[in-house]
Specification:
Blueprint lengths: L1 H7 L24 H11 L2 H15 L24 H19 L3
């Protein structure tokens, strides 16, 4: 099962995952990094560990000076209400949860 999740959720070479694969949207959409890390840990696979590190680098490349992360709403969603502080906090919480849970696997 871990292998299938990894294969279906593999990142792009730049580390982008999920909805970020079409252009950066939110750090929240890096949530599949856990599947990449789990596969790396379970299989002692250096290639997938490198991919996981790329997902982290991609995430933190979008971090702001205040510790928050960029939120770039795609044009096709521009008719929705503006993002709130809660939306931003949710993205950060998702990333931090994944980082700390994942590092417990190694």
């Amino acid at each position: 099962m871990i292998s299938r999740l990894y294969e279906s959720k593999a990142p792009l070479s730049n580390g982008a995952l999920g909805r970020n694969m079409d252009g950066y949207f939110s750090v929240r959409f890096q949530m599949d990094m856990g599947h990449v890390a789990n596969y790396a840990a379970r299989n002692n696979d250096i290639t997938s560990l490198d991919q996981y590190i790329k997902t982290l680098e991609y995430s933190f490349d979008h971090q702001l000076a205040n510790g928050n992360f960029n939120l770039v709403v795609p044009a096709e969603l521009s008719d929705l209400p503006a993002a709130t502080e809660a939306d931003s906090a949710s993205g950060v919480a998702f990333l931090m949860r994944l980082v700390f849970i994942v590092w417990g696997n190694f």
